[in-house]
Amino acid sequence: MDLLMIVMFMAMGAVVIVLMIGLGGFAKGGTFNAKYGNKMMRLRLLFQFIAVLLILLYVYLRGQGS
């Protein structure tokens, strides 16, 4: 497994973690959701964007080697 694949999986894991924290805060409600709910979803979008770029880069580089 190469470094790009490891970073790609870490980025996807970060998306899942932030999504779960955001959904948990939303389900529970209260002050955490009021204070951090919007920030968590924006952070998820950022991590998701990075993960998609890394996946595209990985696919592109793998296609170059064939």
Automatic annotation (TrEMBL):
The keyword Mitochondrion does not apply. Keywords: Membrane, Transmembrane, Transmembrane helix. Residues 1-66 form the HIG1 domain. InterPro entries: Hypoxia_induced_domain. The chain crosses the membrane at residues 6-27, 43-61. The keyword Cytoplasm does not apply. NCBIfam families: twin_helix. This is HIG1 domain-containing protein. It comes from Ruegeria pomeroyi (strain ATCC 700808 / DSM 15171 / DSS-3).
